[in-house]
Amino acid sequence: MIKTLLITCGLLAATAGLGFAETEVGKPAPSFSLPDTNGKTRSLADFKGKFVVLEWYQPDCPFVGKHYKSGNMQSLQKAYTAKGVVWLSIDSSAPGEEGNYPAQKLNQIASNDGAARTALLLDPDGKVGRLYGAKTTPDMYIIDPNGTLVYEGAIDDKRSTDLADVKIANNYVKTALDAVMAGKTVPTTATRPYGCSVKYASN
C-alpha cells in the first residue's frame, strides 16, 4: 500500500509545472471539441441535456489495465450508456509517449477489451487534458445535463493495480452517477485521483 502511494505521488509530481487549469465541482465544465478514433468531431456542447462521463485513458497504464482486465470499466460503461449516459474516454498521450497510438490501433484495443464507451477521443497536444487538470489515468469527471461538473477524481478508493481490489472498492463514479441521476446529492464530489501520470508532451 505504501509503495503504491509513493509511486502514485511520484507520478503526480512528474506532472507539476505543466500549466494545468483547475476545474471546480459546481461550476460549468469546460467546453471542448476533439476528434474520435473514427474521425468524427465530438463537442461537449453536443451532449447538453445528458449526463456525461469523462474518463482519462491510457491503454498501457497498469492502473487503467486493472479496470479493463477485471471488466470493471466496461461494466460501468455498459450499465450507464444503457441509461443514456454519454461516456467519453480521452487519450491525452503526446506523440512518442506511452499510450499514443494510431486511431486504428486504439480501435483494435477497444475491440479486444470489449469497451462500451460512447467514443474514444484523441487529445495528443494535451490541451483538453490540461484544461480539465487531468493528471492521471484513469481520472474521472461527471457532468450533469446542465453542463455542470458534479464529480471529479478517482474511480474508486483502492489505489492499487490489484485486480482483486475492484470487488471490494468503494466506486465513487458509480455512487455519484446513481445519486445524481436519481435527483439526489452526490455524497462525495471530489477525490484525489490515482494512476499513471498523463503522458503530456514535456515541452
SSE diagram, text form:
Layout lengths: L1 H12 L19 E3 L5 E3 L8 E5 L5 H8 L2 H10 L4 E6 L11 H11 L5 E4 L4 H6 L3 E2 L2 E4 L5 E5 L18 H10 L14 E2 L6
Parallel strand pairs: 3-4, 4-5
Antiparallel strand pairs: 1-2, 3-7, 6-9, 7-8
Describe it.
This protein has 203 residues and is of the alpha/beta class. It has one domain (2-197): Glutaredoxin, CATH 3.40.30.10. It contains six helices and nine strands. It has a five-stranded mixed sheet. It has a two-stranded antiparallel ribbon with strand order 1-2. A hairpin with a 5-residue loop joins strand 7 and strand 8 (149-153). The longest helix is centred in the N-terminal third of the chain and has 12 residues, at 2-13. It is globular.
Short characterization:
This protein has helices at residues 2-13, 62-69, 72-81, 103-113, 127-132, 172-181, and strands spanning 33-35, 41-43, 52-56, 86-91, 119-122, 136-137, 140-143, 149-153, 196-197. It has 203 residues and is α/β, with parallel strands linked by helices. The radius of gyration is 16 Å and the shape is globular.
